[in-house]
Design goal:
Number of helices of chain B: 4
Oligomer: heterotrimer
Largest interface: A-B, 52 and 54 residues
Helix content of chain B: 55-70%
Strand content of chain C: 5-15%
Structural class of chain C: mainly alpha
Strand order of the largest sheet of chain C: 1-3-2
Strand content of chain B: under 5%
Order of helices and strands of chain C: HHHEHEEH
Radius of gyration of chain B: 20 Å
Number of strands of chain B: 0
Chains: A mainly alpha, B mainly alpha, C mainly alpha
Distance between the termini of chain C: 14 Å
Structural class of chain B: mainly alpha
Shape of chain C: elongated
Largest sheet of chain C: 3 strands, antiparallel
Amino acid sequence: MTERLVGLPATSLPLTAAMVILVGALLLALIRIVRGPTIPDRVIALDLMASLVVGLLLLLGAVLDLLAIVDIAIVLALIAFLSTVAFASLIERRTRE
Amino acid sequence: MIVFVTGLLALSGALLMLIAAVGLLRMPDFYTRMQAAAKAGTLGILLIVAATGITLGSVSALLHAFLASLFFVLTTPVAAHLLGRAAYLSGVRPWVLQDELAGRYHTQTHELGSGRAPTASLPGIDQAEQASS
Amino acid sequence: MSSFLLNVLLALIWTMAVGRFTLQQLVLGFLLGFLVVAIVEPLQGTSRYTRRVTRGLRFAAFFLKELVLSNLRIAYDVITPRLHARPQIVAVPLDAQTESEITLLANFLTLTPGTLSLDLSSDKRVLYVHAMYAENPEQAINQIKQGMEMRLLEVLR
């Protein structure tokens, strides 16, 4: 496992570069979460962050040649979707009362 | 050849997701931000899924990739709809030229009129906005 | 639907005849089977399946084109300093009637050109859409109805 990480083949260079870009995007989304200004803004930023992590996991799976990581990514995407739906219904319920 | 294709897919996907994040920062209001995140984000993740599926190459990996992309295409619009509706009801004002949704929601039941067959005149959303902000 | 089953059966028979059950062979068998069905079906009097598949493919091509275009447009808008968006929320009267038609329409709209479906009126007659790149509400509604809705209903009905 570790030797796989250390001795990355040169062919995976574009994938690694893509991962670096995704990390940059994560930081930008984080700024939106801090700034707000409203709760829905933060929720949509959180949703995008989850997608970005899913993308990172998928690329990691591709680089390490591990299909199991793809499963983890799909489960994370499912959880992110459910949490966004939960946040939406929470926001809506709060305005009704 | 395959390495070239997957690299291109992964890089363009990552760039699209970066654009989604930049759009999230730069767009003027919540709804336009959601447009940027929902569209660029979805296509970006789809490209990355394709890149991963092709790199791994096995039938099982391609099946995983297909199911994952189906999942993203189906869930993103649903999440955007629910969140957009919740935001509008909670009084997040859209930065728009024209808002044909204004005053169409019933403030208590959250029922949405179509404006076709007019229901009884309803108190507009503006009261809910003042209450929540 | 029986034409579809025939197509699947032909694909399976193809993989048996070739002797290798791989994804490539299955896809190839399916394509060849579709050709056979496309020839046989008119002889039975109806060519619904063939027509549906070709329309579905045309819709898929249209959808992919719109998906890429809308993304390029948003990307351009995000990267360049000036904002070209003219956002507006418009009420689109629907021709789509069943729940699945409306759901598919709303989903595809969210994924394509500068439109995001916000909500459906309780009586299911009007879809409220946040549109970003139309000159005025009439144009936005026309684009949606004659672009996405017409093509989608063509496939589904």
